[in-house]
Design a protein that fits this description.
The chain is of the alpha+beta class. The chain is built from 3 helices and 5 strands, in the order H-E-H-E-E-E-E-H. It has a single domain, classed as Ribosomal Protein S8, Chain: A, domain 1 (2-Layer Sandwich).
Length: 142
């Protein structure tokens, strides 16, 4: 008999999946920081030992929001706003539709949806070129 045998242990059911509840508390903390300090944060769900039940609880608790987007760049990334404004679920897939990474992002808008500054500059140049071409075509018709 070891000395630990005499220690009484009482198991308390905290209700639901503990890992999901920990993630939800972390989301609450990140959302507080976003509101109070304007600082964004994220949780790498892929790195956590979450059960299917934990995922179900997260999805049920967070709900579905109004915005969903798919980004096709080096594989598909699905971004959807949860029912909690400022909390986004971001899933990266490979070409076989296997989940490669999954994050909860707490932000006003996920970075993957923001247009890079260089792309905006390229867009301006492309628009100017099209407008120039349109003007040239109108001039040659007149």
């Amino acid at each position: 008999m070891s000395g630990l045998d005499g220690i009484g242990v009482k198991v308390i059911d905290a209700g639901g999946d503990g890992s999901a509840r920990a993630v939800l508390r972390e989301i609450e903390t990140l959302l507080t920081v976003l509101v109070e300090k304007g600082e964004e944060g994220s949780i790498d769900l892929s790195s956590l030992p979450l059960t299917p039940e934990a995922y179900d609880l997260l999805e049920e608790t967070l709900g579905e929001g109004e915005v969903t987007a798919e980004v096709s760049s080096l594989g598909v990334t699905r971004v959807h706003e949860t029912g909690i404004p400022g909390v986004w679920w971001v899933t990266h897939y490979n070409e076989d539709d296997d989940v490669m990474a999954e994050f909860i992002e707490v932000t006003h808008c996920p970075e993957i949806l923001l247009t890079p500054e260089d792309d905006v500059k390229d867009g301006l140049e492309a628009l100017r070129a099209r407008l120039f071409e349109e003007n040239m075509n109108k001039s040659s018709v007149e």
